[in-house]
Amino acid sequence: MTNKTVLISGASVAGPALAFWLERFGYTPTVVERAPEPRPGGYAVDFRGASLKVLERMGLLDQVRAKATELGEMTYVNEAGKPVAVMKSTVLSGELEVLRGDLVEILYDATRTKVEYLFDDSITTLRQDETGVDVSFERSGSRRFDLVIGADGLHSNVRRIAFGPESQYIHDLGYYNSVFTVPNHLGLDHTARFVNVPGKTAGTYSARDNTEAKALFYFTSEPLKYDRHDAAAQQRILTDAFAGVGWEVPRLLSGIAGSPDWYFDSVSQIKMPSYSIGRISLVGDAGYCASPLSGMGTSLAIVGAYVLAGELAAAGGDHVLGLPAYEERMRGFVKACQKQGKDSGQWFVPGSKAFLRIRNLNFKLLPYLPWRKLIDELPLKVGNSIELPDYAINASAGLPQQPGAQQR
């Protein structure tokens, strides 16, 4: 096997999932992560279609199911708190939903004894040649790897260093979103409540068996200039954006200061002409973020990690063959997920009073409409819009069999 040592930047979802499969296929992965430890908290993430098959092949599906949020219906209310529409759980929660922090913990526990993790560190330079990549770190000494994979999210450090400025690849969808943990002061029992005004969505849903809740906000905006590392400035932006909105919004915003897991960012997609350049490649949000509105970001990360590791293994470690094969297999899936993310915005964050009324009326009448099944079927169709090879394991050698490369 060629190219045995692989550096992965990012220890959220795509990074540990990729490390899991690379180690399984006989490689030696190392994961570097800027944070001092696996990051807890975060919003609920969904699984649909092919991603569930990957979890099953990892032997982790039961562990993930045990952490399921089991979120039920989501009720839309007006600013006075009166219910105006109800949305089925499967539309927003997929076939399986867990908190991002719980998933990160499961993936880390599945890899920590077999994979080297470098926490509290980050890549500063990458220099590749015909035989490998020289990597410099902020804290660790320089090292050489056969391959480097960026699994470091929307604002990927690896992508910036190897492919160029983020501005070349990021496509804003015209929204910003925020999520953070708050007390379950509404006493929600595996349910959610949301309010809409034109261009703004705010709400809360219960988590961890109703012992806490997540506050979730979306709002439309032109691109904003702010420091991504300045939480106080971001919190002022959010508070100003929702000033004057009724219902429970002021109370939810009052929980910002005490929240342990503040998150705020643009709702954006990443579109790359190629996922790889020489010995450096991208996976998950770093290479093809579909945005939180797609409901497919975690599925893309889990599936992308499996396909990247599998195609490299099927090519015997030859990145010249394996990386293009990975991209070829993922392109259609990425396109479908990104389209869903772009199309979902107007329904989740209606831009006008007129469309808001139309949306609510559709939700009310949905149980009686002939196309009601499409609401469930369309996201599942997207989730299953990739054919997953079974990258077979040669039991005697512990390595993937070469015929796997012929399954495309």
UniProtKB/TrEMBL annotation:
This is FAD-dependent monooxygenase. Pfam families: FAD_binding_3 (PF01494). GO terms for molecular function: monooxygenase activity. Keywords: Monooxygenase, Oxidoreductase. The keyword Glycoprotein does not apply. SUPFAM superfamilies: FAD/NAD(P)-binding domain (SSF51905). Residues 5-330 form the FAD-binding domain. Gene3D superfamilies: D-Amino Acid Oxidase, subunit A, domain 2, FAD/NAD(P)-binding domain. It comes from Kribbella ginsengisoli. InterPro entries: FAD-bd, FAD/NAD-bd_sf, FAD_aromatic-hydroxylase. The lineage of its organism: Bacteria, Bacillati, Actinomycetota, Actinomycetes, Propionibacteriales.
